[in-house]
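re the bet — no i am not wrong, look at it urself. input seq straight from the record:
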Amino acid sequence: MRTERVEPGRTAAGAGQAPQRAALCQAEDKEAVWSLLRSSKMGSKQIAQETFDDAVQENITEFEMDPEEAVREAVQQFESQGVDLSNIVKAVRQPASENGQKQKHEILLTLDSLGRCVADSDLNEMAEQLVVFTDQCKEQLAFRYLAGQNGAYSVVFSACQLASGDRNLMLKAFCTLSAILDGQPDLLDAAGQDLLLQTLKEYREDADMTLAGIRCIRHACLKHEQNRQDFVKGGVLPLLTGAIVQHGDSADVVRTASSALRIMTFDDDIRVPFGHAHDHAKMIVLENDGLRVLIEAAKAFTDNSGVLSELCATLSRLSVRNEFCQEIVDLGGLNFMVSLLADSIDHPDVVKQVLSAIRAVAGNDDVKDAIVSAGGTDLIVLAISHHLANPQICEQGCAALCMLALRKPENCNVIMEGGGALAALQAMKAHPREVAVQVPALELLIIHSGLVLVVFTALFSFT
């Protein structure tokens, strides 16, 4: 197999985000931006789908390999050269037709069928093709990416418009839109944003339609700051909190809407110099009573750890101001967190989210005392010991204990008497290479031992 097809990446790993941000901000069109992102991913090289397909076909025709062996050989050769194949469909394309026209991958054949249904306004056939296309998109990112590069969004958007007024067909179309947007938020345009917002407004009493619309918004906003800002300006926040209130008995709606609110507070798009995460968090709390909505929603799902974990994660993202932390306690959020930690101690995903939330609200000194009084320190130590092999839980647990001890000598004594120092040492020993665990654990020990002055003296002595 020839190797000259490889397109080397332009950005080496470890070059830092500042140069990346500058280059991305200077890129004038969306395709240029994504090209920069793809080339900078872990310093890896990129190839086009056609390059991979040609290599597979070459293995079959020139080296007489069977199709499966040809694909394996192509994958091995490209990966050995440091090529990222995460967006590549690793399958054999059908041989060229008699007229020499290249055949397409199955996902593109389905897309063509869907496009014909949309063009002909054949609603019955469109419904079937939407289901098939959705299932294929959900299989892997490579399928979605290939479809997205070949006009899938415009076809699916047209299908959503064509389905207007037919509730069941709209559900299928929006599920397809959600599938194609998963991992490809840049596909969504202004018309798509307006369609989603209008649908949430018109179908606010329909739990299934609300869920489908929110899933689309969630995928569209993850790692995409401009979409987040556009949706917030379009009024999505009251629609999300309203969905939680309106459908408070639906675990799927509450969990997905809570997740969407949380994503609105992310700063995860390296294409922009700064985001509006903090502003969005304040808007959720101050303008949409977000804290009360989330804490009240938790009361309906006392036995559903998945929903409670998501609500905790969102509360953690909203604890951006001193008064917000206190409000969470006043609304009963702290009692809910402590009870959830005690009841779900065997569920690592839940434990991690609760510890993160406790760590966040403990930024308020008065809340620190409330957490200690509620027995939170003992539960945190228990969580670390119980999940000692889990670095994320050890990180969040040690960080939470460190936050509780900061500026509070009396809390520090309670933590140490409850085995906090031993738990921190065990975490450091269990994860010697995890900096995220070592730092908060060491900080906790320093706070307790009064070694701050010694550390600063040592630092200045060797500068």
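see?? Residues 1-42 have pLDDT under 50 and may be disordered. told u. also The CA atoms of residues 298 and 308 lie 6 Å apart. so pay up
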